[in-house]
Amino acid sequence: MSSEKNKAIIRKANEALNKKDLTVIDEFIAAEYVDHTNQIRGRENVKQFYTRTFKDFPDFHRTIEDIIAEGDKVWARFRITGTAPSGKKMELTTVNILRIVNGKAVEGWTVPKVTGKNLSIDRSLYEKPL
Amino acid sequence: MSKRKIIRINGRGGRCSVSLEENKAIIQSFFEAINKHNLALLDKLMAPDYVDHALQLRGLEANKQALTLLYKGFTDWHETIEGMIAEGDKVWVRFKGTGTHTGEYQEYLLSIGKITLAPTGKKVTMTGVVIYRIVHGKIVEKESGVYDLLDFLKQLGLIKYTEKAKKHSPKNVK
User: Fold this and answer.
1) Which residue range is the domain that position A66 belongs to?
2) What pLDDT digit, counting tens, does each position of B20-34 carry?
3) pTM of the model as a whole
4) What is the third-level CATH fold of B8-164?
């Protein structure tokens, strides 16, 4: 698979996910796919992950800011926006790394890791800003 | 003694002076220099007008100063390259940094401004992906950096999860 073909996979999959089209996961994710960062194994669990995401963020939108490919790997920097159930607008930048074999992603990594929501900063633990 | 620079001429008559492997090797040397606190080597690897867009640091001197501050906060700071990819004049690196918080740590957070944290003695890990641009054998800029910053701050004790977060994502929230 060429670099351009692998990048095209990411672009096509991203377009479909923005339309909440989960069939693209069957097309581009191998059945035995492993997300090493978020500990998700198997294509069905990837579908569940996106189903949950779309439920929590009905206006989920992901833009490809930058993309690079070499060998069997594609890395993409995404900008993700969406409104949480609380009404708060969320924005996040991630880099997703995928290894693609015969047109399907077989493993991946994400930075940052998917974290829980509603974090607060414990202000008692640091000195006042200068 | 003059150093011969090998310049490859591509088919269109233009100049293509470094290969992807050479660019990756430059980044390897860059990380080694950071780990060895070898700021002099950074002068050779980086352009004097190097800009770190992620940390908002302009010029090589400002970046070296930031490194010095980092070493003060974490004397055993060490970065490992976990993955690297190159295309054109770009190299993207997935890295893991580890260190012990033995000195004052300074950070600027958009939500609350500048913070300083007295040494906690905690062993911490920072993971991220950084994107470098290399021109004629010199690193000219870090275009972008994506970091597991929240996780890092949590390790330092600067972040705690709210009850709401614990209820919503019990698997992710410890």
Assistant:
1) 3-114
2) 999 999 999 999 999
3) 0.88
4) Nuclear Transport Factor 2; Chain: A, (3.10.450)
